[in-house]
Amino acid sequence: MSTTLEQPIVPPSEESLDSLSLPSTQLQKAHEEFEQINNVTEVESSSSTNIYNTEGAIMKSVSYDTDFPSLSVAVTATKSSSVVWGTRSGAELVRSDVPIVDNRNSKLPTTLRPNPVTVSAVTAVKKSGIITERLELPVSQQLQKKEFGNKTTTADIVKRVRDKTNTHIDVSTGQKTGITTFLIKGKIEDVMRAKRELLENLAVKSEVTIQVPVSARRFILGSRGQTLQGITLKTGTRIQLPPRQENSTEEKTEFDNDEDETMVVKIEGDIKGVNEAKAEIEAIVNERSTKRNHRITHIEHQFYPLIAGAHNQRIYQIAEETGIKIHVPPYIATVENNESNIKDYITLIGERDSVKIASDKIEAIYVDLKSNTRTLSYDIPKRQHKFLIGPKGVHLQELLESTECSLELSPTSDTIVIRGPQSKHPIALQNVLERVRIVSLDITLIHRSADQPLEHAKNILKYLVNRSKLRKIETDFNIQIIVPKVQELEKEVVLDFISKTHEDAEKAKNEVAEMIKNLPPNNFTIATIEPHLHRHIIGRKGQNLQRVKETYGVEIIVPDEKDESPVILIVYEGKVGEEIPTDKKMKDSHIKEVLEKVKVELIKAAQDASDFATQTLSIPVKFHRHIIGPKGSTLNSITGGMDAPVSVKFGSYRTGAAERSANAEGKKLTQAPISNDIVIIKGPTVEVERVVKEISKVVEEAKHTEIMNSYTIVFNFPAQYSAHIIGKGGANVTKLKENLGVRIDIEGGRNEDKKTTPGENVKVTIMGMKENVEEAKAKILDLVDKLQDSATECLKIPSEYHKSLIGARGRYVKRLEEKYGVHIRFPKTRDSVEEGEEDIDAQKPDEVIIKGRKKGVNDAKAELMDLLDYEKDHANSVKFTVPSQYLPYIVGRNGVKITDIKDETMTRIDIGKPELSEDGQEQQIVSVVIQGTKDDINNAKNKILNIVSELEKQTTITMNIDPQYHKYLIGPGGSRIREIVANVGGPEEKSGHIVRFPRQDFNSDEVILKGDKDLVEKVKVEIERLVEEQSNLQADVIRIPRSQHHIIIGRQGSQLREIQNRFNVEIQFPGSRSYHDVHLTTSNAEEEIENSEEVVKIFGKADDIKAAKNEIHEILSKVYSHVINIPRKYHKILISNGNNFRKLRNEFHVTVDYDDSSIGADWHNTEETKESVVAVNGIDNEDNSGWKSVKNDDSAADEGEIAWNLKGEKSQVERAEKYLNEILDEEKTYTHTGYFTVPQQYHRHIIGRNGQTITRIRNESKCRIEVPKAQDDETVIIIGSEEGIEIAREMINDVIERAR
Hints:
Keywords: Coiled coil, Cytoplasm, Repeat, RNA-binding
Structural class: alpha+beta
Strand content: 15-25%
Domain K Homology: 131-203, 204-286, 290-367, 372-437, 457-517, 521-596, 611-700, 709-785, 789-869, 874-949, 953-1028, 1032-1117, 1118-1225, 1230-1297
Strand order of the largest sheet: 3-4-6-5
Distance between the termini: 103 Å
Coiled coil: 766-793, 1009-1036
Region (Disordered): 1-20
Radius of gyration: 54 Å
Oligomer: single chain
Subcellular location: Cytoplasm
């Protein structure tokens, strides 16, 4: 019901208030005039208040926002004779814009009108955070004066409260009514606290008891009692709940006339506080009254798995049908009937009717199981039960799913129980036996003749595990070996072998058994040494232990330091190559002697470390973290790391291991006091003293730091910003702590989803160094200032556009959030809210909320609305179909084609799967859906249909063409076929798609033309023309000496191409790839011609061939020939490596002929010369430097000359002759040859990058330098003048020295 207040009373004028001189007079007169008035004023810090009757009970909770909307705006100030009490004048109140509203003429119903005798409040808000509130205390609610005591007056109490709460309080009492009025001014939280203090000390105490359901107890208490504590603090009352009953009455399973068990809640305090607390508790109870929390406790626990079904499927189905939550505790039943320790039960939570339906269904299932299931008992060794359970009980669920039977395991015996339909028992038993079909090996039985078989078996197991022997067996046989746990070793030591095949498990078992047989008791011994000495025995990085192992051929197993065990196990293994006596007695004696030596050496090493000392320090726990440091860094630096001889332990410790050690030595252990403050240092005396000093130094520094960091500052900020200040998971506060090294405590912080009340603050305490504390406070307050600039905008966007605006995986909305620094929340879908969960902040389906700073919110809103307009414009769609055979051409390779269409048209295109057309034809079609604007859709559709139209015009023609013409039609690199397609108007780049020739190895004459019908026809005509033309061509030959081929070919084939193009012929020289493809049509003998290297084939028309031959003869007739004489001794130098000949041919276009018959067989051999002067192991000379130089000897065999015939154009022959003479002049200066032995690794340094180094050496020394290419040749040859080769040798030496 909506109620409004009419004729509001406004603040009085300055004249009427200034005439009142004394505050007491003002108060007295005000009481007389306003005895019947209950003023209701809007408070800035709160939007609601309560109206009380004469007994102080709450009549109605009044919300100013809903019940009095007219009060949501400021009231216009008008003149009135009303008086407002206070120490300031009314004029000051008017100037401070204090709104005061009188409701005495309001038209509230009588039942809601406030009674004149009331505890009411009038709040005046002066400015942000400061309020003035009035508290009226009727006579009936005041304590009698005698109860105050003679020495304590109301004034004393008010003064005490004023000092305690830091508020200003004025008090007056009406002469006629006796109502005592308090005007309280101060901060909101201080005013509320002052009100509570005054009521507690001056108001009559009231007591109320209410009945509430026992099931509501936990909701009244809240998590860790926070809800109850909040009510007591808010109302200033004391609330007592009865203690929880240990054996409370069980809930009944019938719901018709049954209610929850109730309990009495007692509330003590002033009347107003009691009523408020009562209302709070009743609100909690009413909120939970519609839901039911029911327990089913009468069903035997053995039936839980059968009721729940495999993987809880049956319970899930019931929960889904009824809409409630059901919890069936996991249960592995025991065959014994002693279940007194089991307190689990089936729990149902939900609406009462739904809970009743679900309970009936579970009861029906239970009754059916009770009558139709039987049990079967079977004995299986207890240690194998774990295989029946499986990881997380998976094997039990599989058994239940496949056989409808559950399995009950005993914790004390070997008996298992199968429960389920009797017809399923054989299948279930077979399933169980398959699970435990494993191979076991009892180590205890192998050496049963030992003095202590069980202890020896434990030692063997410890050795096998420590040496990873079992792991190797697992790898070799592809099995799994289950090692017993410590608690399973009290009676036997059994290894279980699991494998897919029984044979592999048996083989592995036999292998392990054979290994254990070779480990008799005689191979084991034990050394008892104090645990704190173990580290000294092991040595740094295990050096001491490793030395003993290698010396005696034993394995030493030292217990883990945390076990604090004094027992060290020594096992004889034997050294590699050691001769062991074959006689058993001698062998046992030898092993015993070795083990005894090892034991004595270990004990001696422990005695050598007897200088060990132990010191116990008492250091407060808070300083332990300073000693340890981040990840133990400080402690490691003090002790020396993990291998240090000294150990440090913190806090209380166990003495079990110490007792065992003392007992082994026949000593009595004195129980050390256990304390979390103790720090125990053990090790050599000198090290212990050093560590104690270092630790004491660290503690002193920590104490000094604590004093330095003791500066504390406390301040408040609005609770509504606490979630942002704290950050997700405390990230923001943690970052401040780490960066500034301060401690920050925030009391009363809120999660982002938890609402706060207006005016609620949180308290922040920062402790640390003064500068850092003040900086942390400044940063927090700066962030609060920024948050006050925050805004929230609610947009109305139809839900059908939400998916498009959010984008795939939230891509679009995340981009907006990052761009503008805002949070955008779309309404949750029905599936995202958990069943039974109440969505407090539920949005309407068409609401989108943007939160953030004002500018960011506005910008994000504008862009989001632009996106919405875009989506609305692009919400059009069209659907059509195309033949499926054209789909690859529409999509393109890797989707390139369809992507281009999307990008060009700005549309979304979805293509369906091929399906048969509905018109009865067998042709498959695909559907195409295009979304976007109408114009863009039409554009995209036209592009796709154009592709289809072009494809429909396509045709395929097969031509039969003799394979001998294929190569001609294709042309070099496909040039001719491209030219054919281009000449008829086709795309040159797609010629390979239009014309397809068969592969050469197929020897097929089919040529396929595919493409546009008109284009294909034109290509076909052109190809037929060319084939016909080729069939009429002839082939002839012309003889050209091989030495003159290059003259006709020209530089890079330029002259040959010019002849072919000019005369329209094809010329093939011997050795070319197409030479043998040209078949002669003349009467010349084919075989004779084919075997000649001078025959050049010409292919073309007869007249063209004749003209081309004449052109070639004319070119050859112009060839100039000139003879020069080359001294015999320089002949081989000029022709070495063929470099000069290549240069003459390529650069000068000149060929060289000479008579090599005149060169003798004993012609000078450079390699022989080198071998004659180079020794096998280097050069034999005085300084053994690997250097030998010889003078080039002109022997008689080198006398005479050799005629060289140079052929080519006259100008080029003259250039070539000049070039050869320059080389001869240079060679004449080469009088000496040096042989320099250089290791292979330096050859690359001599050559240098891109030959730069060797070129530099050649140019500076004027020598020819030859670096060997063979891997086994280390001799570098230097040819030049005597002075030049020395210069070259020195330069090479410099290169080698730099490379070393």
